[in-house]
Amino acid sequence: MFKASKESRAALHRVLHLGQAAGKPGEVYYPLQLRRTEKPVPGEHEVLIRLKAAALNHRDLFVRHHQYPAISLDHPMLSDGYGVITEVGRGVSDNSLLGENVLLTPMRGWISDPTGPENPEKWSITGSTRLYDVGTAQDYVCVHKDEVVPAPKHLSATEGAALPLVGLTAWRALVTKAAVQPGQNVLITGIGGGVALSALQFSVAMGANVFVTSGSQEKLDRARDLGAQGGAIYKREKWEADIRDQLPSSRPFIDAVIDGAGGDIVIKAVKLLKPGGVIVQYGMTVSPKMNWTMPAVLLNAELKGTTMGSRQEFRDMVAFVDRKGIRPVISRIVQGLSNLTDIDGLFDDMKAGRQMGKLVIKIEEPSSPKI
């Protein structure tokens, strides 16, 4: 039997990672680098996945600016991935997994506890992280068999890659934290980003009435196409009044706010929330601090922080997407893992806030044979 040399085996496997650069956190911008290495071999309980597509998240931009803790420049980038299982380890008895298209869980160290990771010291999002040498910006990856979920069959590779991290974050915010029910009014801020769009699609599929904010009328119009019942430009000083004017007379309040910006959201939200309403905070892009006000206390409002989710929540989310036939929104696709110029362009889109949906990389080169 022919055994490939190390050189030819290495030529089969490319890894996108970050290169060295000098500078302070927030000022530095690590360059993209592509290296070739040997194709990995699955361990006893692992599966080998040939990745077909990967997607960016805001976390990846923070990593390039060294604004994220415990990063590794040498480890593969990106958390979101869709691929096909090509090999299984000796301890994997289910050979039907071979040829299965799968989504990769975008984190490690959180199995099923609804309150938080079972072992916080072992919890991490994958991609450019020091704790785990796992990322989706590569040709192949080996992961434990429990870290994959069958991909919904209605999704393309690029749509599947667009789902994991933002879908999980939105699902936990809506279901575990806000407990959104049919007929409730949900406000989702900053529509255009992946989490906000997933939250919009999920809420609509749950039967909720969704209202959104954005800095762009074009994005508000697109949100309406996706099922939002109203929206407001957050650059207007009193955008909350614009939202209030659009609420139905039968339910003239917001039940839950899903927010990733922070800033003055509490001040704005208390003018819209019902007594006992909830603000679910999955990020704070405006500032790492925000004010909790006395009007919020008097309203009996709840503020709930959330980040990512568990493996079980990930499976529940994917099952919901499968059942409802939801297709993630994609803003732009770049072809080829070696196309560093265009991949850098995806990061430029993110920095400028131009995207309306996910930014995705097709792993294969345009003219390359399947690996």
UniProtKB/TrEMBL annotation:
<dbReference type="InterPro" id="IPR036291">
    <property type="entry name" value="NAD(P)-bd_dom_sf"/>
</dbReference>
<dbReference type="GO" id="GO:0016491">
    <property type="term" value="F:oxidoreductase activity"/>
</dbReference>
<dbReference type="InterPro" id="IPR013154">
    <property type="entry name" value="ADH-like_N"/>
</dbReference>
<dbReference type="InterPro" id="IPR011032">
    <property type="entry name" value="GroES-like_sf"/>
</dbReference>
<feature type="domain" description="Enoyl reductase (ER)">
    <location>
        <begin position="27"/>
        <end position="361"/>
    </location>
</feature>
<dbReference type="InterPro" id="IPR052711">
    <property type="entry name" value="Zinc_ADH-like"/>
</dbReference>
<dbReference type="Pfam" id="PF00107">
    <property type="entry name" value="ADH_zinc_N"/>
</dbReference>
<dbReference type="Pfam" id="PF08240">
    <property type="entry name" value="ADH_N"/>
</dbReference>
<protein>
    <recommendedName>
        <fullName>Enoyl reductase (ER) domain-containing protein</fullName>
    </recommendedName>
</protein>
<dbReference type="InterPro" id="IPR013149">
    <property type="entry name" value="ADH-like_C"/>
</dbReference>
<dbReference type="InterPro" id="IPR020843">
    <property type="entry name" value="ER"/>
</dbReference>
